[in-house]
Structures are given as C-alpha cells and as structure tokens.
Amino acid sequence: MTHRVGSAATCGRFIAVVMSLIVLASCSGGGSGSSTPPVTTPPPSGGTTNVAAVTVGFGANGSAGGYYNGIWTTVTVCAPGSTTNCQTIPNVLVDTGSIGLRVLSSALGTLSLPQIQDGNGDVLQECIQFASLAYVFGPVAMANVEVGGETASQVPTAAGGTANSGIPIQVIAANPSFAVPASCLSGGVGPDYNTVEALGGNGILGVGNFPQDCGSNCTTGSVAEYYICPNDTCQVPDVPVQDQVWNPVAAFSSSDTNGLLITLPSVAAGGAASVAGSLIFGIGTQSNNALGSAQVYEVDEYGNFPQVTYNGVSYTSPSNGSYIDSGSNAFYFSDPTSLASTGILACADGSGYYCPASTIPFTATVYGANNVSAPVNFSIANAANLISSGNAAFDDLGAASGSGPATDDLDLGLPFFFNRSVFVGIAGANNTYPNGYWAF
User: Fold this and answer.
1) Contact between 398 and 277 (Cβ < 8 Å)
2) Degrees (nearest 5) of the Cα angle 33, 38, 43?
3) Reading across the β-sheet that carries 307-310, which strands appear in turn?
4) Which residues contact 81 (CB under 8 A, 6 or more apart)?
5) Do residues 99 and 210 touch, judged by C-beta distance below 8 A?
6) What per-residue confidence (pLDDT) applies to 178?
7) Which of 62, 113, 188, 365 is the most buried (most CB within 10 A)?
8) Please, where are the H alpha helices in 300-398?
C-alpha cells in the first residue's frame, strides 16, 4: 500500500527501491482492538474455485481503528506440503500495490513454519520501511498459501522451486531478537507495525504486477531490504529469486497465474457501512475472468503509468509515478495549493484528507506504456462529512499525494475500484505486455 491517512501519520512508498521500481506496501494507523489469533483450522475442502470473497470495511480494529476503505480477505497458511497443519487468517489487506504475503506472527497462532537460512544457519530477514518511517521486520519463511480455492505450494520450477516446498512469505516479528538494521531505518525510526492495533489487520496480501518483491536487484545484495544477521550484526546478502517473498498468484498450482481482477459494486453517496466484492484469479483463463472490452494499460519498468496529465500538468514516471493501488484508501491527488482554484481545501484536522465545500469532479488522462491513453473520471467529497457518517466505504474520499509539484502524483486507490472490474496483469506472463499491466 502506498498511502493511508486516518488515526496515525500518513504512510507512503517503501524507501527501498526494488524490481526496478519503487515497491509499495500496506500501512495503517493505530487504534484499539484485539490481537487474539484466529483458531487453527484446516483449509476448506471441496471443489477448486478461482474466487475469494473480499469485504471493504474497517478491518480488525473496527471503527475505533479509523481504517477507512480497507479491502480485506481471508488467507489460509499451511506448513509446506501439509493440508491439515494450517492457520486460517481473516482481515488480511488485499494490496495490488505490493508483492507477497506478510502476516503478523501473532496471526499464525501455534503454526510453525520453516525459515529460510544460509549455509551457516542464519535466518533470512526482511525489513520494509514506509515513507512515514513506520516499518515491518521479520523472518522469511516457507508456507503453502491458499486464497479462495487456489493454492501456492511451491515457487515455479523455472524459478528454482521444488515440489511441495512452499513459497516464501514474511512473518512480521512481534519481538525481534536483535536490532532492526540501521540501513533499513536510514530515514529515521518510526513505529513498528508489528501488532493488529498498529497494522489494522492480520497481514497484507500483495498481489501486484510482479512475481516476487525484489527480483534481480536483490540477487546481488545491492538493496537494503533482505538481511542475514550473524551474531546480531546484520548485513545485506545476495538473495536468489526463489528465496524472495513471492506473489502467491504467480505461484498458484492452477493455470490462473497470469493475474487477477477485483470487482466491487457501486457505493451510494455518503458511503456504506461495508461492501462485499470478489477477488478473481487468472485473466482469460476461465469464464469469469475474461478481459472483454477492458482497455489494457501496460505499466512501465517502474510499475507506473508512464504519464498522467491533469489540467495541463504532467505527472511522469518515475519521479512523479502514478499508479492503481487497492491498498491505498483514497484518491491521492496533487496537493491543496495546486488544487486551490478547483475548490479543494485541506481538512482542518491536519489529516491530509481533502474537505471541499461540495463534491468536486475531476478528470485525469492516464497513459500506458503500450501507447494508449484515456480519461479517468473521479470525484472528491468532504472527508470530514464522510467520516462523521460512521461508514467505512467511500468512492469519493481524497487526500494530498504530495506537498507540491515536485512530489505530487496520482494514486488511484481503493475508491477507484468501486463499480469497476480492475485487472492486474503480472509481468512475464504475457509477451504483449512484458512489464505487466492494468486493465479496466
């Protein structure tokens, strides 16, 4: 997830640069709630399906947590090769802006997973810091991952996986046994998102445009994201792709490995208490996931629209990269000063949300790397009025993306997904769009 504002500081992009793009991940604010882990259960039995239910709502912390427009699903994590030694985990954020499954250690209950180690027995760790300076840290472990009726039980053989070995996931450590590496926290030390209260849910299901979360940039130890910490002294190792945190979709045992789509219904003005939708795996592989008339926009090598324009202003990648991200809870668009002539005002509470006097329509033009472009229409309403309604799901919640033209972009967050089917094509799965794509 790229952005979220609410009861805590605004979150932003990962500071680490990977996959030749700036990777995105979930972040959330604090709040009250229970961190009691779910009951250990085996995964559901029955026929195979490529659909997982999703719910837009407040998430694990309820309304007190202030998590608006969170999109949540349930994931089952099993020990590699097992169908019974499993934990079913609700309230996992569906995030098209990041790659891989990350779960709180508390959410695993008594389930023990084998950790990836080097030749000396030192465990591979991962550290991700958000631009807000909040971070997650913890070991990389192997697991079978089931979402809906789809299962990822191994990294693809072509990428170095072996049968029934599981895929790498990150376990967010509740109490790390040694200090988080300084190179990960080089921008400053923010809060550790290692609890339900801090994260807003039990984990993050990253199902973005890439098969794994770092790719060739981490195979040479050039990115401070993965660590080995012998004698509690952390260093950046070379990490082969089969040991990096994987997008579960790219590792499914079915034919539905080339992408996914999210479908959500429309939401009324003023929002809704919650909204039910579907996470559908595969693109053009089954009768329920055809592209149909959706326009395809290939992302660039940074995972962005190459260009977005609004009112004569161009946001160009990578410096002002714009994107679609279900893990962002609003339309993050420009800044209050740049939009002042439109009637946009920043909310008085300093949250970063927009509070115009009335709902304002906007049109921006998005460009794909495949030389297509089209207008995108959206509206921004008064966030204070929306939030005071007590609802959790809004299609017109907006916030500042930056502080001025140098830092502004367009993040089409979760509100963009209402009343649409939004496709996420995974890089390498389609020769026509090698970088991956969005379609809607």
Assistant:
1) no
2) 145
3) 313-316, 307-310, 360-367, 373-380
4) 144, 153, 164, 165, 166
5) yes
6) 83
7) 113
8) 383-388
pTM for this structure? Answer: 0.90
Q: Which two tokens stand for residue 85?
A: 């030694």
As given in the structure block, the two tokens for residue 165 are 């070995």
* Short-list 172, 181, 185, CA closest to 133: 185
With 0-12 / 13-18 / 19 or more C-beta atoms within 10 angstroms meaning exposed / middle / buried, residue 294 is: middle
Outline where DSSP puts E strands in 98-247.
Answer: 99-104, 124-129, 135-147, 150-152, 167-172, 203-207, 226-228
Q: Which domains does the chain have, with CATH numbers?
A: 17-251 (no CATH), 285-439 (2.40.70)
CA distance 367 to 8: 33
Q: Given the DSSP bridges, would you call strands 17-18 and 99-104 parallel, antiparallel or unpaired?
A: unpaired
% of the chain exceeding 90 in pLDDT: 80
In this structure, what token pair is assigned to residue 55?
Answer: 């719910």
Task: Quote the CA–CA distance of 54 and 39 in Å, as a whole number.
Answer: 20
| pLDDT tens-digit map of 303-316 | 999 999 998 899 99
Task: Tell me the average pLDDT of the chain.
Answer: 89
Whole-angstrom distance, CA of residue 102 vs CA of residue 137: 10
In contact, 349 and 416? CB cutoff 8 Å: no
d(CA 227, CA 300) in angstroms, rounded, equals 28
CA distance 289 to 255: 12
* Cα 383 to Cα 321: distance, rounded to the nearest angstrom: 25
β-strand pairing of 313-316 with 398-399: unpaired
Alpha helix (H) residue ranges in 89-213 = 196-199
